[in-house]
Amino acid sequence: MFLLKPPGVYRPQGDSFLLREALLAAPPPAGGRVLDLGTGTGMLALAAAGTGASRVWAVDSSYRAVLTARCNALLRGLRVRVTRGDLRRRLPAGPFDLVTANPPYVPCADAGEACGRARAWDAGLDGRRYLDPLCRRAPALLAPGGSLLLVHSVLCSLPTTVRLLREGGLGASVVARRRQPFGPVLGSRASWLEERGLIAPGQTQEELVVIRARRVAG
Question: Is 216 helix (H, G, I), strand (E, B) or coil?
Answer without folding.
Answer: coil
